[in-house]
Amino acid sequence: MVRKAIRTAVILLSGMMAAPSLGAGMLQCVPYARIVSGVEIRGDALTWWDQAEGLYKRGTKPKKGAVLAFRPYGPMALGHVAVVSRILDDRRVLIRHANWSAPGAIEEDVLALDVSAEGDWSQVRVWYSPTGQMGARTNPTYGFIYPAKAKLHDFTPDPALGDSIRFANVDRRDWDAVAAGPRSDTLRRMPVLALGRTPPAPGKRRNSAPRLEADLSIARYAEAVPAERTLSAIIADVKREAVLN
To answer: Residues of the signal sequence (predicted)?
Structure first.
């Protein structure tokens, strides 16, 4: 078991240093954000902020329907874009985005937390579905791009945009509980709907969070930070995962 864990960890560490080639043929964040927000900008996510100048209003205050533009950072060499779906309070919003936690994954109404010193949303942490908790990494952003008309548009999977899956969706009532509770960077684990699971019937709540199957390919994506992950730490995580499974 230990030998297998070490071998897996070595593969994982080497994968972190590679480009996210598994994203090829998968739904990317840009077309998803464009369709959901109605902000008609094309090109890599890192170019959206500059492209929006003169076309859309920009700012540091979250608004429903606005696009949060992430700066290139770590493995996010091309940046990232997400759409604000709901305001919980001045430091918490729900977002909809694609290709964050796994290749082509669509995550709807998941938490983004402002951790900037000035409260200007220049540094955020984002919900990480595979672990069912807030991601550990702090992500720098440009700010928000506001569409002419704030409206959330439905997204219908289109093979022409690449393969996609509805990776996770968190019950909004649980986020309300977080917003009403003490403000903290460390949030309790939230109920997450795993792939292929049926949502609970109206009025019924889950007693515990369904477990998402681990997928090592997620290490190539947003939460992978090679410079901050030692081999021993990765081995410990793999061992822990083996025990939990």
So the answer is: 1-23
CA-to-CA dists, residue 62 to 183, 216, 237, angstroms: 18, 33, 35
Domains of the chain listed by start with CATH number: 21-229 (3.90.1720.10)
Instruction: Say if CB 89 and CB 73 are below 8 A apart.
Output: no
Task: Pinpoint the alpha helices (H) of 80-147.
Answer: none
Distances (CA, A) of 122 to 113, 138, 199: 11, 10, 34
Long-range contacts at 230-233 (CB < 8 A, ≥ 24 apart): 231/9, 231/10, 231/13
pLDDT tens, residue by residue, 168-215: 556 666 666 554 444 444 333 333 333 333 344 445 544 433 333 333
10 burial (CB, 10 Å; 0-12 / 13-18 / 19+) is middle
Give the pLDDT confidence of 34-57 residue by residue, as tens digits: 999 999 999 999 999 999 999 999
* pTM attached to this predicted model: 0.67
Q: How far apart are CA 200 and CA 55, in angstroms?
A: 42
Beta bridge partners of 147: none
Are the C-beta atoms of 64 and 198 separated by less than 8 Å? no
Measured over the CA atoms of residue 16, residue 17, residue 22 and residue 26, the dihedral's sign is positive
Is the Cβ–Cβ distance between 131 and 240 less than 8 Å?
no
For residue 38, give both structure tokens. 């109605």
Give 194: exposed, middle or buried? Use CB within 10 Å, 0-12, 13-18, 19+: middle
